[in-house]
Amino acid sequence: MDETDLLERSPFLVKLKARRLAPSRLADLYAAAGAKTPPPAPDPWECCGSSCKPCVKELWREELKCWNEIHPDGAEEEEEEEDEDRGEGKDEETVRRKKEAAEKIKLAKLKERQEKSSPKVEIAVEEKLQGLRLGSVLQAAKKKLVKEDLW
């Protein structure tokens, strides 16, 4: 697929191109969007956690969104396998079962990718606990100020 095909099929890619990104970044986006498989999620060690702009996770999400717009049905590998099955003269029930199994595998892989890319529950719980600790410290300070008649 060339750049014009990719731009026609991905409105998000058009939006990114309008932001006048560096040519190397555009090349990365075109490569990710035109690939047969989705871009791999960055490894945990690739993000430093210091809110860089742009973060490697943000760059990956952009590439994944472009890829999903270009490939709304997922990876193209399984379609080739189905075509081979039909050519061997298999009955319709076998082809249907294989298609369902391939769909289940595709959904499992997608779910696994989403779990890897989504924030973990432990992080959310820790942030909530930190908020509660801060809230209790503020409440204690308020009580002290009220007691001393400064509030």
TrEMBL record:
It comes from Leucosporidium creatinivorum. Residues 75-86 have a biased composition (Acidic residues). InterPro entries: Oxidoreductase-like_N. Residues 71-98 are annotated as: Disordered. This is Oxidoreductase-like domain-containing protein. Residues 87-98 have a biased composition (Basic and acidic residues). Residues 33-69 form the Oxidoreductase-like domain. The lineage of its organism: Eukaryota, Fungi, Dikarya, Basidiomycota, Pucciniomycotina.
